[in-house]
Amino acid sequence: MKVLFVSNDPTIFNATSAARARMRTYAALVEELHILSIARADARETHEGNLHLYPVHTWKIFRIRELAKRVHALILERGIEVVSAQDPFEHGLAALRAAQGTSVKLHIQVHTDFLSPWFINSGNWRSPRVRMPLLNRWRRRIADRVLPRANGIRVVSERVKASLIARYGTRTPEPSVIPVAVDPTVPPPARLPAHPSFTFALISVGRLEPEKRVEDILAALSLVIPHYPMAGLFVAGAGSERGKLERMTRRLGLANNVIFLGDRPDARALMASAQAFIQTSAYEGYGRTLIEAALAKVPIITTDVGIVGEVFKGYEDVLAVPVADPTALSLAIVGFIEDVAVRHELPMRAEVSARTHLAEAGDIPTRVCADLLRAMDGNSNS
């Protein structure tokens, strides 16, 4: 089977990255694996045995056109049999355009819960308003065009599968639920930086982008700290929202209780040294950091997104709260501060649930390749 991925991960061009390692695993399972991705200017075309990497350098406004052009050329040149796009948006549209007029099969991967109302909503009366990208409305319309014309669809959670079936019914192939691969190895704990202002440490790990709604954690802390001044937050991650979040921290008088760590490659190791992990995403397709936190045996507070309800049960494995509800978050934080027994019991259950889930997920690359084969046998719904 000759496969082409239209990727949204430029780290594949780093020979030592985790993404490159995953691609080598996929390549070992197929005859040829070709991958195109938008990349930095210094990325170069690379060939490792049957793994072929092609960087695309172009302005964002021309991205879809250039990707489609390059994908179409590779389909014809290398006899590609199935093209798999890493999202149903820009990359999916480029793959769809490239496949037109050829016999190649189209496979779409959906890693984002783009049908969640929070994909386009900015907030409510209970929460800070977080400006979501205007492109998200356009992306939802693009997905409406791309997905019904796919031969196969892979989603990463039952939540996403249910949303696609509710919207598209039989107009699309039945999605295959194949989770995200997570390394079950738990690194040794790493010490958090000194924090003399607080002794109950929360940690948030992830990109500082609007959909992560870190603003809600800050708003919740402003309710908690007047009563529990020992509480504080470490924020591990980088992104476009950092400056805004730092200003909000100062405005709420939380400068002594919130520490921004930046992008930390040892984030998984830091989790185990915190008293609780907190995630406030507006939406998640999966939620890799929830699995990582559970494996680290740290108590978890999370919004009801991604694999919450599927892998982790609220009030059995984790404390789950509604999206954009700082008051509910503050109550969950206080719950962990005050109830030591719950803080010990929930992580033990969450770890069992996480390891059971990973065992049941099996070999992800093998399952994805089997899904590509199913797409090759499927008929287009266009």
UniProtKB/TrEMBL annotation:
Its Gene Ontology molecular function terms?
glycosyltransferase activity
> Start and end of every Glycosyl transferase family domain?
202-345
Task: Write down a Pfam family by its short name.
Answer: Glycos_transf_1
Record keywords: Glycosyltransferase, Transferase
Tell me which domain of life the UniProt entry assigns to the organism this sequence originates from: Bacteria
Domain annotation Glycosyltransferase subfamily 4-like N-terminal: ranges? 45-185
Record InterPro entries: Glyco_trans_1 (IPR001296), Glyco_trans_4-like_N (IPR028098)
- Which PANTHER family does the UniProt record give? D-INOSITOL 3-PHOSPHATE GLYCOSYLTRANSFERASE (PTHR12526:SF510), GLYCOSYLTRANSFERASE (PTHR12526)
Q: What is this protein called?
A: Glycosyltransferase subfamily 4-like N-terminal domain-containing protein
- Which species does this protein come from? Candidatus Kaiserbacteria bacterium RIFCSPHIGHO2_02_FULL_54_22
What lineage does UniProt assign to this protein's organism? Bacteria, Candidatus Kaiseribacteriota
